[in-house]
Amino acid sequence: MALCTTTISSSIFSSKFLSAVKRKNLPLLRSQISYFPSTFTYSVLPPLSSGSVSSKIRAVVGEETSGGSRTGVSVYKPKSYEVLVNDAAKSLVCALEEGNIRLEIDFPPLPSSISTYKGSSDEFNDANIQLALAVARKVEELKGTRACIVFPDRPEKRRASQLFKTAFETINGVTIGSLDDVSIGAVPSFFQSIRNTLDFDFDDETEDTQNSNEPPSFYIFINCSTRELSSIEKYVEQYAPSTPSLLFNLELDTLRSDLGLFGFPPKDVHYRFLSQFMPVFYIRIRDYSKTVSVAPFILNYTGALFRQYPGPWQVMLKQGDGSFACVAESDTRFTLGETKEELLRILGLQEEKGSSLEFLRRGYKNATWWEEDVDLENSSAWRN
């Protein structure tokens, strides 16, 4: 017998669903959000204690916010990538004005169906370059900064300088560099020279047009892999010890998972270096599914971990109209396991606490090593 599936959206809040929620003794609060279709009438929220303001998680659905507010957004539905870029740039400027120098921006550079390396890596890299240029342009308009975009190596730098020559020339103060600019020992230099020769790494006159005598106001690192994280650290130590540095769409959660494996940098790179970078604009979208014992047997739903500085970390549930509604927020970063638990809680799909079903679903560990090893980190900025 084939399994039936359904996708959770605003329309799931039907009479049958609400009656099922009531059997779980979860209170229903009327939503104050006017952006959703009329079928979205209720939000499922856990009971809040009198000290909920100081608790780790509190619901903010229906709460209005203003620009620059440290309160989270109720609903997030960017109409275009231009809106995403503007929001990311404003968050970045706010963090820079407060004196933060180790920063991260991470959001899907392409439509979710072909995002990251599931599609063409060239499309992924080129989209990141265009978005980085757009952010650099917006920050220059808002703050008058000069950005240096740093590529993994000289071939990538040359390719970008040729494909996006016009864009580089039209944005004031934007220069380019590569991780190959870092001074290294004689043996690595020998192998680097061989690689450059095999890559036909000859000088290109177009690269000189993106150089400047003035030092950059901040550095943007893009399209780097796990192997290049150590090179980023050396680059920052050499060129930007006190200059703001931005890790742009590197998908650090994916890169961190390779640290410590054979042929990759050690985990200490996270403890010592990556832990310093505070996410100022972050959207991590994930699809989930939940097996139930009655029809439709499999429930599919989509959620996101969201942060728009200076606001808090938020767990968002995707609605039928494509918007994301906040269901929980925290001053500190949610782990991946906590994000899923919040989504299950708001949908009324959690197993009974302490039951065998809960243990079988969650397993013995529900957090990654970089989320657990708090005591080994030199900084907690990446969690704030």
Protein architecture, described:
The model is unreliable at 1-67 (pLDDT under 50). The chain has helices at residues 15-23, 81-97, 121-143, 154-163, 165-170, 186-198, 205-208, 229-239, 252-256, 268-272, 336-347, 356-362, 369-372; strands at 5-7, 28-30, 42-44, 75-76, 102-106, 147-151, 175-178, 218-221, 245-248, 278-291, 298-308, 313-318, 324-330. The protein has one domain (5-46, 55-383). The radius of gyration is 23 Å and the shape is globular. Strands 1, 4, 5, 6, 7, 8, 9, 10, 11, 12 and 13 form an eleven-stranded mixed sheet that branches. Strands 2-3 form a two-stranded antiparallel sheet. The protein is 33% helix and 18% strand. Strand 10 (278-291) and strand 11 form a beta hairpin. It has 384 residues and is α/β, with parallel strands linked by helices.
